[in-house]
Amino acid sequence: MFNISYFAPLMISTYHRLSHLRATIDSLSKCELATQTQLYIFSDGARAGDEDEIESVREYLRGLIGTSAFKHVHVIERESNYGAKKNNRQGIEEVLGKHGKVIFLEDDNKVASGFLVYMNQALALYQSDSRVLSICGYTPPIADVMQSSFKSNSSDDIFAFPRFVAWGVGFWSRSYPLMQPISSTNLENLNKTINVAEFGDDLINRFRAEVNGHLDSLDTRATFYQLSNQCFSIFPKNSLVQNIGQDGSGLHSGISSKFDVALWDKQDDFNFPDNLQVCPDMQQRMSEFFSISEDDMSSEVLDNILSQIQHLGWKSVSLWGIDTMTQLMLPKLKQADIKVNYLIDSWAREDEMFQAYSVINLQDAYAYGELHIVIMSFASRFKMAEILNANYSDVQFIHFVE
Protein backbone atom coordinates (compact mmCIF):
# COMPACT_ATOMS: atom_id res chain seq x y z
CA MET A 1 0.00 0.00 0.00
CA PHE A 2 1.07 3.63 -0.04
CA ASN A 3 1.13 6.46 2.48
CA ILE A 4 -1.50 9.17 1.96
CA SER A 5 -2.69 11.22 4.88
CA TYR A 6 -6.09 12.15 3.46
CA PHE A 7 -8.17 10.21 0.95
CA ALA A 8 -10.21 12.04 -1.68
CA PRO A 9 -13.97 12.07 -1.09
CA LEU A 10 -16.35 10.45 -3.56
CA MET A 11 -19.22 12.37 -5.13
CA ILE A 12 -22.18 10.95 -7.06
CA SER A 13 -24.92 12.95 -8.75
CA THR A 14 -28.16 11.06 -9.26
CA TYR A 15 -31.76 11.45 -10.38
CA HIS A 16 -34.14 8.52 -10.81
CA ARG A 17 -32.15 5.50 -12.04
CA LEU A 18 -32.23 3.47 -8.84
CA SER A 19 -30.97 0.18 -10.28
CA HIS A 20 -27.94 1.88 -11.86
CA LEU A 21 -27.24 3.81 -8.65
CA ARG A 22 -27.39 0.64 -6.53
CA ALA A 23 -24.91 -1.11 -8.81
CA THR A 24 -22.54 1.87 -8.69
CA ILE A 25 -22.58 2.20 -4.90
CA ASP A 26 -22.36 -1.56 -4.42
CA SER A 27 -19.20 -1.66 -6.55
CA LEU A 28 -17.70 1.27 -4.62
CA SER A 29 -18.40 -0.42 -1.29
CA LYS A 30 -16.22 -3.36 -2.40
CA CYS A 31 -13.23 -1.16 -3.15
CA GLU A 32 -10.07 -1.10 -1.14
CA LEU A 33 -10.19 2.14 0.94
CA ALA A 34 -14.00 2.43 0.83
CA THR A 35 -14.25 2.35 4.64
CA GLN A 36 -11.76 5.22 4.79
CA THR A 37 -13.57 7.33 2.20
CA GLN A 38 -16.37 9.87 2.57
CA LEU A 39 -19.23 9.59 0.07
CA TYR A 40 -21.34 12.57 -1.01
CA ILE A 41 -24.53 11.87 -2.98
CA PHE A 42 -26.50 14.74 -4.52
CA SER A 43 -30.08 13.66 -5.20
CA ASP A 44 -31.79 16.00 -7.67
CA GLY A 45 -35.37 17.10 -7.04
CA ALA A 46 -38.24 15.59 -8.97
CA ARG A 47 -39.73 16.85 -12.20
CA ALA A 48 -43.48 16.57 -12.47
CA GLY A 49 -44.47 12.92 -12.66
CA ASP A 50 -41.21 11.56 -11.22
CA GLU A 51 -42.00 12.07 -7.54
CA ASP A 52 -42.44 8.38 -6.69
CA GLU A 53 -39.20 7.37 -8.40
CA ILE A 54 -37.24 10.11 -6.61
CA GLU A 55 -38.70 9.09 -3.25
CA SER A 56 -37.61 5.49 -3.90
CA VAL A 57 -34.08 6.70 -4.65
CA ARG A 58 -34.01 8.77 -1.47
CA GLU A 59 -35.32 5.96 0.71
CA TYR A 60 -32.43 3.84 -0.53
CA LEU A 61 -29.91 6.64 0.06
CA ARG A 62 -31.16 7.36 3.58
CA GLY A 63 -30.56 3.71 4.34
CA LEU A 64 -26.87 4.16 3.55
CA ILE A 65 -26.36 6.79 6.26
CA GLY A 66 -24.57 5.29 9.23
CA THR A 67 -23.53 2.09 7.42
CA SER A 68 -19.98 0.80 7.77
CA ALA A 69 -19.31 0.50 4.03
CA PHE A 70 -17.93 4.06 3.89
CA LYS A 71 -16.28 6.39 6.39
CA HIS A 72 -19.27 8.72 6.20
CA VAL A 73 -22.23 9.07 3.82
CA HIS A 74 -23.62 12.54 3.11
CA VAL A 75 -26.96 12.65 1.28
CA ILE A 76 -27.96 16.04 -0.12
CA GLU A 77 -31.60 16.15 -1.24
CA ARG A 78 -32.34 19.00 -3.62
CA GLU A 79 -35.65 20.69 -2.85
CA SER A 80 -36.29 21.45 -6.52
CA ASN A 81 -35.16 20.04 -9.85
CA TYR A 82 -31.73 21.45 -10.67
CA GLY A 83 -31.17 19.43 -13.83
CA ALA A 84 -28.18 17.15 -14.28
CA LYS A 85 -25.57 19.81 -15.08
CA LYS A 86 -26.41 22.16 -12.21
CA ASN A 87 -26.72 19.27 -9.76
CA ASN A 88 -23.35 17.90 -10.90
CA ARG A 89 -21.45 21.15 -10.94
CA GLN A 90 -22.75 22.67 -7.73
CA GLY A 91 -22.05 19.37 -6.02
CA ILE A 92 -18.50 19.27 -7.34
CA GLU A 93 -17.89 22.87 -6.28
CA GLU A 94 -19.24 22.18 -2.80
CA VAL A 95 -17.07 19.11 -2.25
CA LEU A 96 -13.98 20.79 -3.71
CA GLY A 97 -14.58 23.78 -1.44
CA LYS A 98 -14.44 21.49 1.60
CA HIS A 99 -11.73 19.04 0.56
CA GLY A 100 -9.66 20.49 -2.31
CA LYS A 101 -10.00 17.32 -4.37
CA VAL A 102 -12.81 15.01 -5.41
CA ILE A 103 -13.53 11.76 -7.23
CA PHE A 104 -16.68 12.30 -9.29
CA LEU A 105 -18.86 9.51 -10.64
CA GLU A 106 -22.07 9.45 -12.59
CA ASP A 107 -24.73 7.16 -11.15
CA ASP A 108 -24.08 4.50 -13.80
CA ASN A 109 -20.34 4.01 -13.23
CA LYS A 110 -19.53 0.53 -11.92
CA VAL A 111 -15.94 0.39 -10.65
CA ALA A 112 -13.25 -2.22 -10.11
CA SER A 113 -12.04 -3.05 -6.60
CA GLY A 114 -8.75 -1.19 -7.16
CA PHE A 115 -10.40 2.01 -8.37
CA LEU A 116 -10.00 4.03 -5.16
CA VAL A 117 -6.38 2.99 -4.67
CA TYR A 118 -5.50 4.06 -8.21
CA MET A 119 -7.39 7.35 -7.93
CA ASN A 120 -5.90 8.34 -4.58
CA GLN A 121 -2.41 7.32 -5.58
CA ALA A 122 -2.60 9.40 -8.77
CA LEU A 123 -4.31 12.39 -7.13
CA ALA A 124 -1.54 12.55 -4.54
CA LEU A 125 1.28 12.04 -7.04
CA TYR A 126 0.16 14.65 -9.59
CA GLN A 127 -1.47 17.19 -7.27
CA SER A 128 1.11 19.88 -8.04
CA ASP A 129 1.85 18.90 -11.64
CA SER A 130 0.26 21.58 -13.84
CA ARG A 131 0.54 19.31 -16.88
CA VAL A 132 -2.09 16.98 -15.39
CA LEU A 133 -5.68 18.22 -15.52
CA SER A 134 -7.44 15.14 -14.21
CA ILE A 135 -7.23 11.45 -13.31
CA CYS A 136 -9.58 9.31 -15.40
CA GLY A 137 -10.70 5.85 -14.33
CA TYR A 138 -12.22 4.72 -17.62
CA THR A 139 -10.06 3.55 -20.51
CA PRO A 140 -11.54 2.45 -23.85
CA PRO A 141 -11.17 -1.19 -24.94
CA ILE A 142 -7.96 -0.76 -26.94
CA ALA A 143 -6.00 -3.78 -25.70
CA ASP A 144 -4.42 -4.28 -29.14
CA VAL A 145 -2.30 -1.15 -28.82
CA MET A 146 -1.78 -1.47 -25.06
CA GLN A 147 0.48 -4.49 -25.49
CA SER A 148 2.79 -2.80 -28.00
CA SER A 149 2.78 0.61 -26.31
CA PHE A 150 3.74 -0.79 -22.91
CA LYS A 151 6.23 -3.36 -24.17
CA SER A 152 9.26 -1.11 -23.62
CA ASN A 153 8.31 -0.57 -19.98
CA SER A 154 5.81 -3.19 -18.94
CA SER A 155 5.79 -1.99 -15.32
CA ASP A 156 3.94 1.23 -16.18
CA ASP A 157 0.26 1.04 -15.34
CA ILE A 158 -0.88 4.38 -16.74
CA PHE A 159 -0.62 6.58 -19.80
CA ALA A 160 -1.19 10.27 -20.56
CA PHE A 161 -3.62 11.55 -23.19
CA PRO A 162 -5.23 14.99 -23.79
CA ARG A 163 -8.85 13.92 -23.56
CA PHE A 164 -11.23 13.76 -20.61
CA VAL A 165 -13.76 11.06 -19.68
CA ALA A 166 -16.05 11.87 -16.75
CA TRP A 167 -16.89 8.24 -15.93
CA GLY A 168 -15.06 8.08 -12.64
CA VAL A 169 -12.71 11.07 -12.69
CA GLY A 170 -10.64 12.87 -10.08
CA PHE A 171 -9.44 16.46 -10.04
CA TRP A 172 -8.36 19.22 -7.72
CA SER A 173 -9.57 22.69 -6.84
CA ARG A 174 -6.64 23.98 -8.96
CA SER A 175 -7.78 22.20 -12.14
CA TYR A 176 -11.58 22.18 -12.12
CA PRO A 177 -11.95 25.97 -12.73
CA LEU A 178 -9.88 25.62 -15.91
CA MET A 179 -12.77 23.86 -17.70
CA GLN A 180 -14.37 27.00 -19.10
CA PRO A 181 -16.71 27.72 -22.06
CA ILE A 182 -15.03 27.79 -25.48
CA SER A 183 -14.96 31.05 -27.43
CA SER A 184 -14.86 31.29 -31.22
CA THR A 185 -11.54 33.15 -30.98
CA ASN A 186 -9.95 30.44 -28.88
CA LEU A 187 -11.22 27.76 -31.27
CA GLU A 188 -9.77 29.65 -34.25
CA ASN A 189 -6.43 29.91 -32.43
CA LEU A 190 -6.40 26.19 -31.63
CA ASN A 191 -7.16 25.26 -35.25
CA LYS A 192 -4.14 27.31 -36.32
CA THR A 193 -1.78 25.38 -34.05
CA ILE A 194 -2.90 21.72 -34.28
CA ASN A 195 -5.02 19.37 -36.34
CA VAL A 196 -7.83 18.69 -33.87
CA ALA A 197 -8.97 15.60 -35.77
CA GLU A 198 -5.71 13.85 -34.83
CA PHE A 199 -7.20 13.46 -31.35
CA GLY A 200 -10.59 12.26 -32.59
CA ASP A 201 -12.71 13.67 -35.42
CA ASP A 202 -15.69 13.88 -33.05
CA LEU A 203 -14.00 16.89 -31.43
CA ILE A 204 -14.52 19.23 -34.38
CA ASN A 205 -18.31 19.19 -34.05
CA ARG A 206 -18.18 19.11 -30.26
CA PHE A 207 -16.02 22.24 -30.07
CA ARG A 208 -18.22 24.02 -32.59
CA ALA A 209 -21.34 23.01 -30.67
CA GLU A 210 -19.85 24.52 -27.50
CA VAL A 211 -19.04 27.78 -29.28
CA ASN A 212 -22.59 27.99 -30.67
CA GLY A 213 -24.24 27.20 -27.33
CA HIS A 214 -25.60 23.85 -28.53
CA LEU A 215 -23.54 21.90 -26.02
CA ASP A 216 -22.55 22.48 -22.40
CA SER A 217 -20.12 19.68 -21.59
CA LEU A 218 -17.25 19.46 -19.11
CA ASP A 219 -15.76 16.62 -21.18
CA THR A 220 -15.53 18.89 -24.20
CA ARG A 221 -14.26 21.92 -22.29
CA ALA A 222 -11.64 19.87 -20.46
CA THR A 223 -10.39 18.32 -23.69
CA PHE A 224 -10.24 21.74 -25.34
CA TYR A 225 -8.20 23.14 -22.45
CA GLN A 226 -5.76 20.24 -22.61
CA LEU A 227 -5.19 20.58 -26.35
CA SER A 228 -4.78 24.36 -26.01
CA ASN A 229 -2.31 24.16 -23.14
CA GLN A 230 -0.21 21.06 -23.88
CA CYS A 231 -1.46 19.17 -20.85
CA PHE A 232 -3.30 15.89 -20.39
CA SER A 233 -5.24 13.50 -18.21
CA ILE A 234 -3.97 10.27 -16.69
CA PHE A 235 -5.61 6.96 -17.68
CA PRO A 236 -5.06 3.40 -16.38
CA LYS A 237 -3.77 1.01 -19.03
CA ASN A 238 -6.86 -1.14 -18.43
CA SER A 239 -10.20 0.30 -17.43
CA LEU A 240 -11.21 0.54 -13.78
CA VAL A 241 -14.70 1.83 -14.66
CA GLN A 242 -17.54 0.38 -16.71
CA ASN A 243 -20.39 2.63 -17.79
CA ILE A 244 -23.57 0.58 -17.37
CA GLY A 245 -25.79 3.38 -18.65
CA GLN A 246 -25.25 2.89 -22.40
CA ASP A 247 -28.75 1.42 -22.53
CA GLY A 248 -30.60 4.56 -23.62
CA SER A 249 -31.43 5.60 -20.04
CA GLY A 250 -28.79 8.34 -19.82
CA LEU A 251 -29.14 12.00 -20.72
CA HIS A 252 -26.38 12.16 -23.34
CA SER A 253 -25.82 8.52 -24.31
CA GLY A 254 -27.66 6.32 -26.75
CA ILE A 255 -27.73 2.53 -26.91
CA SER A 256 -24.25 1.22 -27.63
CA SER A 257 -21.81 -1.54 -26.72
CA LYS A 258 -18.82 0.35 -28.12
CA PHE A 259 -17.62 1.46 -24.67
CA ASP A 260 -17.97 -1.91 -22.92
CA VAL A 261 -14.86 -3.08 -21.09
CA ALA A 262 -13.68 -5.84 -18.81
CA LEU A 263 -12.74 -4.30 -15.47
CA TRP A 264 -9.09 -4.56 -14.46
CA ASP A 265 -8.53 -6.79 -11.43
CA LYS A 266 -5.38 -5.01 -10.20
CA GLN A 267 -6.02 -3.78 -6.65
CA ASP A 268 -2.96 -1.86 -5.45
CA ASP A 269 0.66 -0.84 -6.05
CA PHE A 270 -0.04 0.90 -9.35
CA ASN A 271 3.14 1.91 -11.13
CA PHE A 272 3.48 5.42 -12.54
CA PRO A 273 6.21 6.40 -15.05
CA ASP A 274 8.76 9.05 -14.18
CA ASN A 275 8.49 10.70 -17.59
CA LEU A 276 4.93 11.56 -18.64
CA GLN A 277 4.40 11.96 -22.37
CA VAL A 278 1.78 11.09 -24.97
CA CYS A 279 2.74 7.92 -26.86
CA PRO A 280 2.22 8.30 -30.66
CA ASP A 281 0.78 4.78 -31.01
CA MET A 282 -1.59 5.45 -28.14
CA GLN A 283 -2.65 8.76 -29.65
CA GLN A 284 -3.52 7.11 -32.95
CA ARG A 285 -5.55 4.32 -31.37
CA MET A 286 -7.37 6.60 -28.94
CA SER A 287 -8.14 8.95 -31.81
CA GLU A 288 -9.53 6.07 -33.87
CA PHE A 289 -11.66 4.89 -30.98
CA PHE A 290 -13.23 8.28 -30.26
CA SER A 291 -13.78 9.11 -33.93
CA ILE A 292 -17.36 8.85 -35.10
CA SER A 293 -18.45 5.60 -36.72
CA GLU A 294 -21.66 3.76 -37.57
CA ASP A 295 -21.13 1.63 -34.45
CA ASP A 296 -21.92 4.71 -32.35
CA MET A 297 -25.50 4.94 -33.57
CA SER A 298 -28.20 2.45 -32.64
CA SER A 299 -30.88 1.78 -35.25
CA GLU A 300 -33.40 2.32 -32.45
CA VAL A 301 -32.49 6.03 -32.35
CA LEU A 302 -32.97 6.44 -36.09
CA ASP A 303 -36.22 4.45 -36.06
CA ASN A 304 -37.46 6.59 -33.17
CA ILE A 305 -36.94 9.77 -35.19
CA LEU A 306 -38.44 8.34 -38.38
CA SER A 307 -41.55 7.15 -36.55
CA GLN A 308 -42.07 10.67 -35.14
CA ILE A 309 -41.83 12.20 -38.63
CA GLN A 310 -44.33 9.70 -40.00
CA HIS A 311 -46.69 10.16 -37.06
CA LEU A 312 -46.73 13.92 -37.70
CA GLY A 313 -47.36 13.35 -41.40
CA TRP A 314 -44.40 15.46 -42.51
CA LYS A 315 -43.55 14.96 -46.20
CA SER A 316 -40.44 17.13 -46.18
CA VAL A 317 -37.93 18.19 -43.50
CA SER A 318 -34.56 19.80 -42.95
CA LEU A 319 -31.94 18.07 -40.79
CA TRP A 320 -30.01 20.17 -38.28
CA GLY A 321 -26.57 18.71 -37.71
CA ILE A 322 -24.14 16.85 -39.98
CA ASP A 323 -22.37 13.76 -38.68
CA THR A 324 -22.74 9.97 -38.74
CA MET A 325 -26.30 10.19 -37.44
CA THR A 326 -27.24 12.35 -40.43
CA GLN A 327 -25.44 10.09 -42.90
CA LEU A 328 -27.38 7.08 -41.66
CA MET A 329 -30.69 8.95 -41.58
CA LEU A 330 -30.62 10.20 -45.17
CA PRO A 331 -31.21 6.80 -46.85
CA LYS A 332 -33.94 5.98 -44.33
CA LEU A 333 -35.80 9.16 -45.24
CA LYS A 334 -35.39 8.50 -48.95
CA GLN A 335 -36.76 4.98 -48.55
CA ALA A 336 -39.72 6.40 -46.61
CA ASP A 337 -40.34 8.94 -49.41
CA ILE A 338 -39.67 11.92 -47.16
CA LYS A 339 -37.92 14.80 -48.91
CA VAL A 340 -34.90 16.47 -47.30
CA ASN A 341 -34.96 20.17 -48.16
CA TYR A 342 -31.70 21.28 -46.51
CA LEU A 343 -28.97 20.20 -44.15
CA ILE A 344 -28.46 22.82 -41.46
CA ASP A 345 -25.07 23.62 -39.98
CA SER A 346 -24.17 26.73 -37.98
CA TRP A 347 -20.74 26.76 -39.67
CA ALA A 348 -22.10 26.40 -43.22
CA ARG A 349 -20.01 27.95 -45.99
CA GLU A 350 -21.46 29.56 -49.10
CA ASP A 351 -22.57 26.99 -51.72
CA GLU A 352 -21.57 24.11 -49.42
CA MET A 353 -22.93 20.67 -50.33
CA PHE A 354 -23.08 17.35 -48.48
CA GLN A 355 -24.10 14.21 -50.38
CA ALA A 356 -25.90 16.33 -53.00
CA TYR A 357 -27.80 18.34 -50.35
CA SER A 358 -27.37 22.07 -49.81
CA VAL A 359 -25.87 22.98 -46.44
CA ILE A 360 -27.12 26.26 -44.99
CA ASN A 361 -27.29 27.89 -41.57
CA LEU A 362 -30.37 27.97 -39.37
CA GLN A 363 -31.26 31.58 -40.09
CA ASP A 364 -31.27 30.97 -43.85
CA ALA A 365 -33.35 27.81 -43.50
CA TYR A 366 -35.98 29.78 -41.61
CA ALA A 367 -35.82 32.62 -44.16
CA TYR A 368 -36.46 30.07 -46.92
CA GLY A 369 -39.63 28.97 -45.13
CA GLU A 370 -38.48 25.76 -43.44
CA LEU A 371 -40.86 24.98 -40.57
CA HIS A 372 -40.13 21.25 -40.03
CA ILE A 373 -36.70 20.62 -38.49
CA VAL A 374 -35.22 17.35 -37.26
CA ILE A 375 -32.43 17.78 -34.67
CA MET A 376 -29.72 15.29 -35.62
CA SER A 377 -27.74 15.27 -32.41
CA PHE A 378 -28.02 13.11 -29.34
CA ALA A 379 -25.82 14.97 -26.86
CA SER A 380 -26.87 18.48 -27.95
CA ARG A 381 -30.55 17.89 -28.64
CA PHE A 382 -31.92 19.70 -25.59
CA LYS A 383 -29.75 22.80 -26.06
CA MET A 384 -30.68 22.94 -29.74
CA ALA A 385 -34.34 22.61 -28.82
CA GLU A 386 -33.99 25.57 -26.45
CA ILE A 387 -32.60 27.68 -29.30
CA LEU A 388 -35.53 26.83 -31.56
CA ASN A 389 -38.09 27.49 -28.83
CA ALA A 390 -36.52 30.84 -27.96
CA ASN A 391 -35.95 32.20 -31.46
CA TYR A 392 -38.20 30.34 -33.91
CA SER A 393 -41.49 29.77 -32.10
CA ASP A 394 -43.43 28.84 -35.26
CA VAL A 395 -40.97 26.10 -36.25
CA GLN A 396 -41.97 22.55 -35.44
CA PHE A 397 -39.09 20.27 -34.52
CA ILE A 398 -38.38 16.79 -33.25
CA HIS A 399 -35.42 14.90 -31.81
CA PHE A 400 -34.82 11.51 -30.27
CA VAL A 401 -37.01 10.89 -27.23
CA GLU A 402 -36.77 8.02 -24.79
From TrEMBL:
InterPro entries: Nucleotide-diphossugar_trans (IPR029044). It comes from the Bacteria. Gene3D superfamilies: Spore Coat Polysaccharide Biosynthesis Protein SpsA, Chain A. This is Glycosyltransferase.
